[in-house]
Amino acid sequence: MKNRVRTIVVLVCVFVVLPVVGGLVYLSRISAEAAARYYAEAIAQGRFEDAMAVESADADADPNVGRGDAVDLRRLQRSSSTPAMSVTGVWVHTNPDGNGRQGVNIEFSMNGATTTRVIYMERSGLPKPHFGSWRVVSSAARKVTVSADGYASDLSIAGVSLGDVGATKGSTRIFPPVTDDLWHYAGGGGVVYAYPGVYDMSVSRISEYTDYVVDSVPGATTINMFDDQLAHHIDISLNEETKAWQQEQFVPLLESCIRGESPEQAMCPDLNVADVESIDVGEVSDSLPGSLAAYNIVVITREHRIWLDVSGAVCFDEAGQRYIVFTIDRQRAEDRGSR
């Protein structure tokens, strides 16, 4: 009986314990270069879950790549139209850094362009398949700023909303704050935290009277965040037909406002001007984006001579209909008999 038990114990050791121990020994011997290459290939192939599985819980808090309040895109997918990405180099630093971490330079390539991400690793915990006992403690993901200007109810990257673009009542994006119920030209955007690659994006425009450009590409449906050093900008601006409409309607609508009328396609300022005899608007010039301006407008009334500087910005209501909102930038008046 004892011999049988002894035999069973030996067999368990041979067929169970030894392979497990041997496997752990093998995994523990995986080099820093091999571990870093596995991590890099997971990112290049879009296997973000595999990449995150070998990152420590605070790999995004390292001062070199600190995520902070950035929107985390690591758990999402790159665009299906992302060009093929490859790992073209993995270089292990000769010596650990001041904190004892092993640094590694990873070079990615896509469409003929290259970018290098520096990661740091430490040995920690039980070995994992393909990665051994290494853990990535400073991620290959980076913060990327995406700025935007114009008119949009939503701006999304990889299905995650960065909020609206523009200003509505009470918004502090422009000064003075908006007091009407229209959508005004203003900023927006945000900061994302992402692995290198191309991501789907969508722009929900306020009106069909606008067009949008992503990094100089009209109507783009993706954004390229392969190189984290590049700035990204999305501009949702008036289309050419609306710019022409604004040029054509600026003077007639402004004159109608000055005469105290209420044109349907304008928001008029409070002028309190009566008995208007003549209006000389003069030359109209470009002002801020979405706006035109007229300076030294001369208004003659029965009793006064008035000088005005007026700007007019195109804004939209909830239905996407366009209006010109006029603002008095300067006003001076004198009695006609004072000269």
- What is the helix/strand order? HHHEEEEEEEEEEEEEEHEEEEEE
* First-residue to last-residue Cα separation: 129 Å
Helix content: 10-25%
Helix-strand makeup class: alpha+beta
User: Per the principal axes of the C-alpha atoms, what is the gross shape?
Assistant: elongated
Rg value: 32 Å
Taken as a percent bin, the fraction of beta residues is: 35-45%
Cross-sheet strand order for the largest sheet:
1-9-6-14-11-12
Description:
- The protein has 339 residues and is of the alpha+beta class.
- It folds into 4 domains: 1-26; 27-142, Nuclear Transport Factor 2, Chain: A; 143-238; 241-338.
- Helix content is 19%, strand content 42%.
- The chain contains 4 helices and 20 strands.
- The chain has a 6-stranded mixed β-sheet. Strands 15, 16, 17, 18, 19 and 20 form a 6-stranded mixed β-sheet that branches. Strands 2-3-4-5 form a 4-stranded antiparallel β-sheet.
- Strand 7 and strand 8 form a beta hairpin.
- The longest helix is centred in the first third of the chain and has 27 residues, at 2-28.
Could you write a compact summary of the structure shown?
The chain has 339 residues and is of the alpha+beta class. It has four domains: 1-26; 27-142, Nuclear Transport Factor 2, Chain: A, CATH 3.10.450; 143-238; 241-338.
